[in-house]
């Protein structure tokens, strides 16, 4: 049976690297991959075109990640709104995911430290989480 | 699938055995090599040693006492390796190693790098009792590792149902 993998992405170099790693190291024929981007709620969504732009941005992120992933037979892309770590864990539980893969840090610039979203997922996920370290 | 080498850090705790059974279920196709690694501390009868990460116990008053403590730690580590290997029923290539080092996380990351591992796998927490928090060792591994780290947490529903049964 295929391993169901959830790749949580925010389009950062770290999550693109996670996608790349997934492509290189795990047999793509044995995986069913879901790409998830979580849009954090923002006041701008209430403004004109705010939400439309945010959706567009989200689609771009998913597209970039899909490209980094290269060709894989069954890739599904999903974009949801909510608190990122909660939505990632919830999605994984609801969809019987076997493994969550994510980059170590998102867009934050605080050096070497693990990102807040990765850490939060890490702390509470009942499902195995793989954290991929970006290239130095 | 190309060769895939994983380092499984274990202390024989339920979390570590769950990590092992996850590997056994999910990473069996292809040429997977699992290095089962356990780390023991470095005992010392120098009181200052704890500053350097060595294990100090005031009851150890002689070299012999220190040696006995060390032997017990080796036996426990060996048992941890055996229990963990026991869970890995579908993995054909298993390497076992006991490391002795003051900092477990650092030792595991170094070991993984020296053996060109593709991934480190750990249970979320070992024998510590800090509730559901990420264990300090697994956190330190995530923080220091240049290669991907998979942490196997566990589900409240699995708590009683699927604790890996270990018979020796």
Automatic annotation (TrEMBL), chain A:
Pfam families in the cross-refs: Usp
InterPro entries: Rossmann-like_a/b/a_fold (IPR014729), Universal_stress_UspA (IPR006015), USP_A (IPR051688), UspA (IPR006016)
Annotated ranges, domain UspA: 3-132
Domain of life: Bacteria
Record-stated family: Belongs to the universal stress protein A family.
PANTHER family assigned: UNIVERSAL STRESS PROTEIN SLR1230, USPA DOMAIN-CONTAINING PROTEIN
UniProt protein name: Universal stress protein
Organism expressing this protein natively: Sulfobacillus acidophilus
TrEMBL record, chain B:
Origin: domain of life: Bacteria
InterPro entries, sorted: Rossmann-like_a/b/a_fold, Universal_stress_UspA, UspA
SUPFAM superfamilies linked to this entry: Adenine nucleotide alpha hydrolases-like
Domain (UspA): residue spans on this chain: 5-152
Family: Belongs to the universal stress protein A family.
Protein name: Universal stress protein
Natural source organism: Sulfobacillus acidophilus
Classification of source organism: Bacteria, Bacillati, Bacillota, Clostridia, Eubacteriales
